[in-house]
Amino acid sequence: MLIDGVFSGGGIKGFAYIGAMQVLEENNYCFKRVAGTSAGAIMATFIAAGYTANAIEKMLDELQLKSLLDPPKPVGNLPFLKWLNLYFRMGLYKGKALEKWFYKKLAVKGILTFNDLPRGSLKLVASDLTNGRMIVIPDDLASYGIDWRKFSVAKALRMSCGIPFFFEPIKLRDGKGECLFVDGGILSNFPLWIFDNGNKQRPIIGLKLSNPREDMPPQKINNGLDLFEALFSTMKNAHDERYISRKHEKNIVFIPVENYSATQFDLDQEAKNTLIDIGRKRTSKFLETWRPL
Predict the structure, then answer these.
(1) Nearest residue to 99 (alpha-carbon basis) of 26, 38, 155, 165
(2) Which of these is catalytic: 183, 188, 210, 240?
């Protein structure tokens, strides 16, 4: 059966999507259109490029996650200089190694620009901090004077998963000057709304790396760091939670992986297997009762 899919962000926790995808493929579900943010953007892009769940698992097994962390050239050996570097470059890591890896894996499938994909088959969310707006790539590239057909899919993917302060922002120019882009999850971490245009052609499945909202415990705020994390979490989820209703929840696979960190790049094989297994079990349980409309 052909379906459309939307994947939430979640960083390294996205390994759970492999198990979810394996179950969907085993039950003969195939994605016609996909959308996502951050880790969800990575899964969506590889699906749109023609990778299977098992091929993605093999590809990630062969990858040394830490090889994607490329720190800027140090300005000195003193510890505080590292934070000075962060202040000026706005990220601990350049993100060029990450984009290069995306480019290499997509090129294997002949995917370099959005013109190499069926039109409308892939939509990625990024955050334009300069203009204070959320953008959907490739749809909104025209407002920056960019021809979407020639725009690099790898760069779009890097824009969508540019975790603030972790990776340096991506810079693009519009008619007014330079614009800085970071992780789409800042403004919409689960863009289930993206295919809701009143012209529903296929069932839509959402895959979200969390429990349902009513099952989430309240956030404990005891200090300034807790306050920052709570602010970031609220900002990240508020837009999407307002959109999601009981009507939408029946089409969402909730994958509870809150015990893992989004930036845990030293994840061992046992943890990866556990995440994949969680994705498998939750998706199998979902399909037991899901009735596509």
Answers:
(1) 155
(2) 183
Q: Considering the chain, what percentage of its residues have pLDDT values greater than 90?
A: 52
Q: Is 183 among the residues known to form the active site? A: yes
The token pair that represents 112 in the structure block: 């370099």
List 125's β-bridge partners, or say none. 136
- Residue 215 or residue 11, greater confidence: 11
Catalytic residue, candidates 38, 127, 160, 210: 38
- Residue identified by tokens 């890896």 is 101
Cα–Cα distance measured from residue 290 to residue 285, given in angstroms and rounded to the nearest whole number: 9
Mean pLDDT (whole number) for 237-257: 76
Q: What is the pLDDT of residue 216?
A: 56
Cα separation, 92 vs 73, whole angstroms: 11
Residue 2 burial by Cβ neighbours in a 10 Å radius (0-12, 13-18, 19+): exposed
pLDDT digits (tens, 9 = 90+) for 197-210: 666 789 999 999 98
Place of tokens 């492999």: 18
Q: Which residues contact 140 (CB under 8 A, 6 or more apart)?
A: none
Is residue 143 part of the annotated active site? The answer reads no
